[in-house]
């Protein structure tokens, strides 16, 4: 039984909740680092008002005592800071009131789950859809991923990411060491390493905003320090690259995912794609390149894992799109719920988080163990096995 | 408990086996159609010798009686036709013999699971890796997908696919009705709709072969006739687009997957990306376009599902790549195991199969039921509910 | 993907938390009925002080709006009312303090998970084990089960239970209609139907308490109104009776479970055990008896489901048992943590709850559907199918 | 992702098939020992004709090469030796023929899944139910369990079992060392340790047979050599005793399961039930008794695991029971399909097998690892950790 988690909560409800199950005991939790991840998700040029009013914070209400995990499930809560304004609209118990007082939604927005969710769940108030399908939920997924990240860091596995494209502005390629990539993107308003690109993207976002439009982009996540052998080819659902693909595609608004050179692999020749195998006594087996992004046969090969995902523009628009009222079946121009023109930098943080989770899960499947001490010993074992191979 | 399956078997072992669990009773099996899918996988310009010698066939050895499913698990067997030549090399029981007689592999091929699998499973004969990690396994995954396809077809859901690119040759865009797309690609040696492109691709593959190289490509799968409401946004692992992403990425040699306009969504503006909602009494809700490829919020929206995947070039090469012998740690030029220069048309069929599976699984989760009759009644219910929404 | 749930929380932590995932939309929640189940768990002759101080209450913090489920995951919180006294001892973040201030436990109690949990998770403070392994967690499992129960009740499925034995005092057999059984046990301090037995059991518990000992017992759960066809024989893990067995055995302190006549089936002859099949046009197929407790081949047969479980005496004792200090390895007489002499009536409520969950899960697997309306239509379909069989 | 398996196949179909997924590499398979387990299942006083005609044998057709596992899924086949007589009746493809030629069953047998399965799956030929619901499937479950057993034996974990009761004849209690228990039960026609009991049981079975009746019984399984710490209390579905309960209850005809003293725990006082904790430097922690059957809090405590299950009499009867024809709705006396009067000794072997599986699964979850070498090292680690605790 692997690491697993469930989340609950609505965007304007009292809180987001997650239960993380299967974490080992004796992992020292860095609370500041945990909340730093939530902060990272909230930053980014182009975010709307909401990001300013809320300073998210993950509270742990189970599974951690005196700063360490106990092996018990970990309950995480991210409170919604403006819940006080929504207690009636989102009341758990029945209320009296007009549609307006309940802020009933009957006008589905294109590009959202509104209409499909309403049809599927037979809900005539589409607020019941949008409250859950909102990307607000990623706040708690980031908290979950932050726990996974702390587990991985204890074994020297580090995760970084960068924005590669926002709309028409692409960042130039770089091959920076991960540490530098992390420090530079952390300093950037749009999570890019290149300052000139940053300026261009900011200006571009300003323009998009002015046009009443929105824009998406491409983000990349890099995981370094992974041992050879996470994931497996033996069954389709053990392939770690495929699990990462699911995790990335499950992020709100993501429409594609690729590993290594990804779609470029459909153009190049075999002799240009594969990573030659080298060996030296100091480093063991290594590769001359990393076009396959750290995976062969669904298993990590010891090279950095490189994943890219594409986020579509946020569908909420000042510039309206045609839609249909579910009450009257009359056409209208789709309403605006929020005001972000670009959430790509935040999406970069979310992607790091979901990738961290999948890697941690595969890590625990590989090494077993119930306490950090036991996992450490098992991990060292395996390292020795690799050296003696 | 959902539809599920497991496969077993090695590329040169006696057989591939699959058990499919959770299929309803009273589905009439079209055996010819089942084997036609296996045949489709074997065709395609650029395949090597093996595809000719073996005419794959899926035998059912459980779960079907007198031509109909019974609700019991279905066991599928795809025999390996040249097993007779491998009975010693792949013997289940211990044999005496030299490394050569056992065809022991100690020279890992870049781009394969060989080395990583050997390290992970502590196997000194890499044949134990490559026999399972080989794409041969997709034969039985196609058989599994063919069952899913027959289930879906009973509800008017149809699946087609096409090759969009082979290496440097891209097919021009088309917007053909699915029927025509299917009949044209079926007639094509490279599964494209355009004859001129076909010729160019054939010539290109010939050249690649002559150069001792290999080439990948991009394939697309289209599913039509899906009801609104498969998959869900309520939890990350219920999103059907994400499950499809996992399934596609789990196909051997796939390095990327996208839905709808996919990576292009990172470039365009919101006003160019989202599909406006229309309504008429005859058709109910529909969309003015299908840029999102049939999904919003991880749920089907009634438009065709459009998925694309990229396959890297087959790593097996006449043109050698550097690698390292695991016995001696000496460098060598990687050996050749097989001779396909291009397997993209086959990959197109495999992708249809794994997508069919994920859709069928989500379909049964939505409609429940244990017999085809019961599912039909539930399905009709839901259709009525949608009409009355 | 089925109905599922996870729980988190410690016995003296701030709260118990559960996330319930997969519930349909548009189920009207009866909050009073939900909390009534928690109250039922707290009652019962023989409970210690804690049961008095805490009046448990389940708060919903996600997945329900204006009194109805939305299809989104439901988050449940049961606060710990005396958390204020434990904020230091159970602090999430690191604290300074002596072992005594931290209430560190180094003396494992026989019959608890203390020692095994400490060894497994490499925990030197056994409080980290006992806080999670405590039966306190059943409070939130009852809340989870209460949701399942409300789902089932909407389809006329009712669940009751009774205590059959407390230590040496067995209740006489009865064959009461479920309604009467429920009303009588609800009025009883020990959840028996027979008043004389109640008195005997109370006196027995008093004696046990006076002796500084503890006592367990046997409880029975009955589910009526189930349709034929929940669960399946087609795979070992689809058998509903077996899933119920797991659920019951997973209740703290349970050591056995039986269905129908259970262990008596090992003594009787076949002709005395099986339930003859009858038919009339009004009732359809029915049985002349219910020795098999509602199951044949792991599927419900339309007769009431009858499950029994045995609870061992609570290991916490005034009367000490030998154990070993994990610091000094010296023997000692096991300490007392709580003061319940008998928790069998509460266990009866917990058993109803976990059985309700398993039945609801199988129910949704059978009928599919995302909203109550859709499930209702599917259910009615199936009823018609049964009638026409 | 844990060890898992699926089975397929009908009692008169060509074969039973299983796929076992998640076994480590480099486990040396003892083929003779594997088939010995199948033979054990076939023996036993009171079995009918079929047991004589078929000598079951499990063939491996995937996942094992040159006598060792490779980490790939293992495919197992148990052929049905009299398939040749059933090729028409059980034909996979449609056949022409009368109901009689198809051996259509329309008369459901009480105590079987026949009627409920027919109603659930909307099957008018109940053969489609009984072919899968038959206990014949346990042949391949025994094969699956035999693999688990070989894994466990490599770590010194041994499994034995005994028959404790057949109908009215109970075996006297014994406290034999496991080795002796195994050798004595292996020599017994009814799998008891006591010769006099054996004679009584044989005579009893003869009488039952003569009376045209059938009889069940109680069986016990013992697992020795388990480390402390398999399973967990942290979540209801990680408790190993509960998983074992599901596995045992899922065996055909089982109606109850208990651990340790089981239902007796409802009668005794706490001071009589719990196992005191002892310690010595040589043995580490141990217990003064084993009333809890090796589990506290759902975790193994290092004492032998003791599980008992009850099997009801085989419902197939010479002595008829009333039932109803599904075509005519007319009452009839239930037909006879097979002729075993008592299958309790076989059930004892099946129970050992399913318990072995659950233990092996929990073992791999605890120790992780992909090869036997790696698991061994992890296991040794943990042993050292326990010693140093």
Automatic annotation (TrEMBL), chains A, B, C, D:
Q: Where does NADP(+) bind?
A: 41, 47
Keyword Glycosyltransferase assigned to the entry: answer is no
Q: Which reaction does it catalyse?
A: 5-O-(1-carboxyvinyl)-3-phosphoshikimate = chorismate + phosphate
The top EC class is lyase
Q: How is the cofactor bound?
A: Reduced FMN (FMNH(2)).
NCBIfam families xref list: aroC, PRK05382.1
Q: What is this protein called?
A: Chorismate synthase
Task: Give the originating organism.
Answer: Saccharibacillus kuerlensis
This protein's encoding gene:
aroC
């Amino acid at each position: 039984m692997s690491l697993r988690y469930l989340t609950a909560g609505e965007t304007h409800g009292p809180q987001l909740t997650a239960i993380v199950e299967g974490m080992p005991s004796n992992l020292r939790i860095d609370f500041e680092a945990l909340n730093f991840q939530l902060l990272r998700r909230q930053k980014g040029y182009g975010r709307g008002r909401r990001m300013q009013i809320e300073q998210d914070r993950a509270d742990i209400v189970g599974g951690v005592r005196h700063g360490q995990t106990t092996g018990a499930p970990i309950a995480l809560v991210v409170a919604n800071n403006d819940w006080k304004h929504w207690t009636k609209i989102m009341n758990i118990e029945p209320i009296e009131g007009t549609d307006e007082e309940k802020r009933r939604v009957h006008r589905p927005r294109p590009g959202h789950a509104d209409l499909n969710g309403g049809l599927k769940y037979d809900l005539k108030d589409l607020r019941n859809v949008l409250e859950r399908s909102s990307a607000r939920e990623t706040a708690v997924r980031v908290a979950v991923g932050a726990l996974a990240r702390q587990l991985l860091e204890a074994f020297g596995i580090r995760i970084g990411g960068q924005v590669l494209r926002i709309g028409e502005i692409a960042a130039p390629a770089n091959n920076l060491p991960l540490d530098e990539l992390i420090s530079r993107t952390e300093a950037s308003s749009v999570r890019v390493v290149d300052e000139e690109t940053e300026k261009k993207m900011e200006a571009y976002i300003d323009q998009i905003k002015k046009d009443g439009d929105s824009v998406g982009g491409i983000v990349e996540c890099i995981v370094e320090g992974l041992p050879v052998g996470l994931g497996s080819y033996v069954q389709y659902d053990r392939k770690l690259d495929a699990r990462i693909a699911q995790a990335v595609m499950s992020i709100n608004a993501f429409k594609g995912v690729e590993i290594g050179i990804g779609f470029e692999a459909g153009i190049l020749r075999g002799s240009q794609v594969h990573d030659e195998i080298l060996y030296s006594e100091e480093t063991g087996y290594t590769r001359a390149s990393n076009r396959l992004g750290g995976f062969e046969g669904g298993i990590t090969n010891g090279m950095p894992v490189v994943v890219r995902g594409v986020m579509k523009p946020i569908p909420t628009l000042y510039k309206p799109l045609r839609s249909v009222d579910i009450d009257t079946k009359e056409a209208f121009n789709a309403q605006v719920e929020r005001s972000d023109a670009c959430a790509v930098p935040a999406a970069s943080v979310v992607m790091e988080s979901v990738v961290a989770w999948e890697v941690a899960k595969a890590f625990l499947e590989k090494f077993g163990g119930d306490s950090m001490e036991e996992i450490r010993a098992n991990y060292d074992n395996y390292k020795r096995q690799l050296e003696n191979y």
